[in-house]
């Protein structure tokens, strides 16, 4: 029984979850960043239910009256440690590094802001640069984001650049599919 509880605790910690919910709007760092934005009173945001096929490591929220909605995604991007990913898969492993971020969407589901508010990786902090993050503004999922073409590459932050770019594409696509239902 002790081993089972210990194993559950280890899995809980390594997957980045917390009992209170990592991306509740009560997260101190997230609340602080949202407070800087005028229209984002935490009580105005209502969590959206994510359907089974769209399981994500984060949460979607909606605010505003019908027709005047704004959307928010708050979640985590896992990246590989410096030196590379798991040799067998090329993907981040359980021991990967991460950063927490949010995407603020306008009512038309176009990105209006991307903000990284908790960077826990040892390498690639350049992706936190506001000037670099601005290039995601107005992204609405109608075109592909390609690092080196539509998105600037950053030397020294290659893994973080690809991970964030892919995550923004994926979350925008999921939001659009959820909104259709």
Task: Outline the structure in words.
By secondary structure, this protein is an alpha+beta fold. The chain is about 25% helix and about 20% strand. It has 4 helices and 5 strands. The protein has a 5-stranded antiparallel sheet with strand order 1-2-3-4-5, sandwiched between helices. Strand 4 and strand 5 (about 110-120) form a beta hairpin. The protein is globular. Mean pLDDT is about 75; it is low at about 1-20 and about 85-95.
Topology:
Blueprint: H1 2-14, H2 28-35, E1 46-47, E2 58-63, E3 70-79, E4 97-105, E5 111-119, H3 130-133, H4 158-180
Antiparallel strand pairs: 1-2, 2-3, 3-4, 4-5
Structure described in brief:
The protein is of the alpha+beta class and 181 residues long. The chain has helices at 2-14, 28-35, 130-133, 158-180; strands at residues 46-47, 58-63, 70-79, 97-105, 111-119.
Largest sheet: 5 strands, antiparallel
| Uncertain parts | 1-21, 86-93
Give average pLDDT, whole number: 77
What spatial order of strands do you see in the largest sheet?
1-2-3-4-5
Helix content: 25-40%
For this entry, give a set of tags:
globular; alpha+beta; single chain; 5 strands; 5-stranded antiparallel β-sheet
């Amino acid at each position: 029984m002790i081993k089972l509880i210990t194993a559950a605790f280890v899995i809980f910690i390594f997957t980045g979850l917390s009992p209170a919910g990592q991306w509740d709007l009560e997260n101190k760092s997230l609340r602080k960043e949202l407070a800087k934005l005028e229209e984002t009173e935490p009580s105005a945001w209502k969590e959206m239910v994510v359907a089974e096929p769209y399981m994500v490591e984060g949460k979607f929220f909606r605010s505003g009256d019908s027709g005047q909605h704004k959307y928010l995604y708050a979640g985590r991007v896992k990246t590989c440690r410096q030196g590379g990913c798991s040799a067998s898969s090329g993907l981040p492993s359980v021991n990967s590094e991460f950063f927490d971020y949010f995407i603020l969407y306008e009512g038309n589901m176009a990105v209006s802001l991307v903000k990284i508010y908790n960077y826990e990786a040892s390498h690639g902090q350049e992706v936190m640069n506001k000037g670099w993050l601005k290039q995601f503004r107005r992204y609405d999922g109608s075109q592909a984001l390609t690092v080196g073409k539509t998105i600037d590459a950053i030397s020294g932050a290659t893994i973080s650049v690809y991970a964030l770019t892919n995550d923004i594409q994926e979350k925008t696509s999921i939001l659009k599919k959820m909104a259709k239902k």
